[in-house]
User: What shape does this take?
Amino acid sequence: MSKRLMTVLYWFLALEFALGAVTKCWPGDTIFSSAYSTKFEEWGYPSWMRFVVGALEGAAAVLLVIPDKRTRFLGATTLMFVLTGAVTTHIVHHDPTVESWAAPTHLLVMGILALANWPADWRDLVRSSHAAPTARTPRPSEERARAHQCGGTP
Assistant: This one.
């Protein structure tokens, strides 16, 4: 898939989740659905939980548009956790498919994006991408072996 097409996909998904974050924080009904404050209470969650979910969706949307594999991976995995909760909630409360089809679809898409941006080494997630490489400090046993090969003492 071309890089430009992937960039458009990331921006489209980020805009979707940014809009979702705004609707979670909106005080009343939206053009998309009834107020999330009442929906969350109907699902058994406190109404303030919608702000947490909205903040996570908004932060993940920002991470998706930063053109770095590490940030895109973190954004996709954050959304996977949020969407797993959404799918579970829709299943437990027997919500109609018309209202709940988006959560499992987006969960699948985020799973694919997380795999596509999977770091080669998990430590790459916490390393600075701009850090200068450092020379490895030799172990004392290596220094002795090197000195022994050269005929000297350490």
